[in-house]
Amino acid sequence: MGGGSNMLFTKDYSGLIIHNQIKGIEKVEESKDFLTLRVGAGENWHKFVLYTLKIGLSGIENLSLIPGCVGAAPIQNIGAYGVEVKDFISKVEFYHIEERKFDKKNKIECNFGYRDSIFKKSLKNKVIITHVYFKLNKKFNKVISYGTLKELAHKKSTELKAEDISNFIIEIRNSKLPNPENIGNAGSFFKNPIVSSSKIEKLAKNYPEIIFFKIDENKYKVSAGWLIENIGLKGYRKGDAGTYDKQALVIVNHSDASGKELLLFSNFISKKVLNTYDIKLENEVNIY
């Protein structure tokens, strides 16, 4: 376990829990345009992002303030604001528990997908990630085509820097996402569903305000937060379990809800979405 920021326990766990605290950031390869860093899996993700900005690198600034540790990044293929971490990972090192040996996978072998990887499939619960290699840009290539980031280009009178994007995203996240130190939550509880072009055409006809993003000619990503909010469940509460009043995609524990109660509440949300839009939501949070 890293930071435990993407987990929900629904019952007592009787097994062994290992807290990964492997630290260290090492420069391993450098060229004119790129620098590759080997990073310990126990490093705090956001602090690592800030470190890359401090030494003049860019690429992962859109992933600022995502909770958790570096080792979780490839497992989940974390992403936000038009960027996925897979685009900057070159290799992942791990310890194979069953085979009792250290091994590694390159980017292709990691089989990255939307919030997915080999570490959530064939290697799930079989390995402990020790280090992640990041190939980052020395030259800044901004990604601001996603949602509210478009506003940033109009706000800034001077040329944008990677730090500007990071600061803007930190501001956005702090304004609409609850601090887990103040109110229990695991961030976005559901993945944004992927639908076909025919499905999005039907949805857009019935719900003109629907928020979606084109992936390719036949795949569209729909905002799960919008789906939930549109059926009146933003800020909805059942007992101590509820959706956050500023972001419907986040399920919060207002006080003493058990893990089982939170799971039941998430199932209630999923059922409502399925009945309304014929879309099945998939959990982003890992359930134990």
Automatic annotation (TrEMBL):
GO-annotated cellular components: cytosol
Pfam family, one: MurB_C
Pathway, per record: Cell wall biogenesis; peptidoglycan biosynthesis
Annotated EC: 1.3.1.98
Source taxon at top rank: Bacteria
Enzyme class: oxidoreductase
Subcellular location: Cytoplasm
Protein's UniProt keywords contain Ribosomal protein: no
Keyword Mitochondrion: no
Active site: 115, 188, 284
Any one GO MF annotation of this record: FAD binding
UniProt-listed InterPro entries: FAD-bd_PCMH, FAD-bd_PCMH-like_sf, FAD-bd_PCMH_sub1, FAD-bd_PCMH_sub2, MurB, MurB_C, MurB_C_sf, Oxid_FAD_bind_N
Any one GO BP annotation for this protein: regulation of cell shape
Cofactor: FAD
Catalytic reactions of this protein: UDP-N-acetyl-alpha-D-muramate + NADP(+) = UDP-N-acetyl-3-O-(1-carboxyvinyl)-alpha-D-glucosamine + NADPH + H(+)
Domain named FAD-binding PCMH-type: residues: 1-139
Keyword list, A-Z: Cell cycle, Cell division, Cell shape, Cell wall biogenesis/degradation, Cytoplasm, FAD, Flavoprotein, NADP, Oxidoreductase, Peptidoglycan synthesis
Chief location bin: cytoplasm
Family, similarity comment: Belongs to the MurB family.
Function: Cell wall formation.
Protein name, entry field: UDP-N-acetylenolpyruvoylglucosamine reductase
Gene name of this polypeptide: murB
